Amino acid sequence: MERVFKYKVANNADLLFVKKDIENYLKDKIPQELLSLYIFGIMELGTNLFKHAKEGEIWLLKSDEIYFLSFLDKGGGIKDLEWAMKKGTTTYNNSLGLGLYQLSQNDLLDFSIFSSTNLQGTVSLLKPKDYNPKYSYLILNYMDLKKSGDFIVKKGKFFLMGDVSGHGLKAYKTAEFIKKFFLKNPFSCILVKEFFEKLHKTLIENKQRSAVLTIAEYTKRNLSLCGVGNIVSFEIQREKITFYDFKSGIIGESFSSITERKFSLDNGTLVGLVTDGVEREVLLEIKNIKDPVLFCICALYFSDIKDDKSILIFKGE
After folding, report:
1. Share of the chain above pLDDT 90, in %
2. pTM of the predicted model, to two decimals?
3. Which of 60, 152, 98, 136 lies closest to 313, judged by CA?
4. How many CA atoms lie within 13 A of 273 on its CB side?
5. Could you tell me the domains of the chain?
6. What residues does 126 pair with on adjacent strands?
């Protein structure tokens, strides 16, 4: 999943620009009926950004040619979401209070919302109703995309998640080098250690940056992780979150061994990976979110932007 556009919204003029810009961009990419609901959502949820939180953001996201809209603010949060979603609910005069209710009552869109008075903010998501991924990921860049060392790449049932040391063009070039190395080298889960050893040697020989890496093997209801360095994994099971740290060296610098871990994804369990920049306090607060897309957005949005940051989520069927 990638973020296509990000808009700051502080007034009605900003909102009208977003409406027009997204309408023009999506008009040939999604069905007209779906686009009409997205435009309705922009006007309803976008208005809430500056009415209730002074300002906020609208993100257009894309995954496998599917487009989503997310509305984000760091206001006070909504104390009672169930009340806010009811028909006729409003905190303003001359309002029918139909916005959130209508978005939740249609056959084309899934509308999900998270709000926290602790984190102080609200994030909502609009996506096509038939989109239900088994995994989801999102990368946000502290710097320009081509100065980032964070990456996630997929090959068959394997995912490689990495964070190259430092920032800037050299970090980006090392990330691209590692992605290509991963894609052209065939291996199975039992050969991951050999893959890491070969990559470690190659990075040193080519004078590339070092990196922390985790390989995930995803097979229906099971997940295997092999990691080197400080990419953190976590498991959410029955609303309890458990963190696991990989602390076994750095590829291209001081690699000696890997940490391995296996998970069962039965009964709606979520298992995730995060790079530095994503805060554990945020993950503890949002652990009840069942939607992996909304979970990714909230994890990155509510964590302070001090570094590039990435999240990869797998869910049970």
Report:
1. 58
2. 0.88
3. 136
4. 33
5. 2-128 (3.30.565.10), 135-315 (3.60.40.10)
6. 69, 111
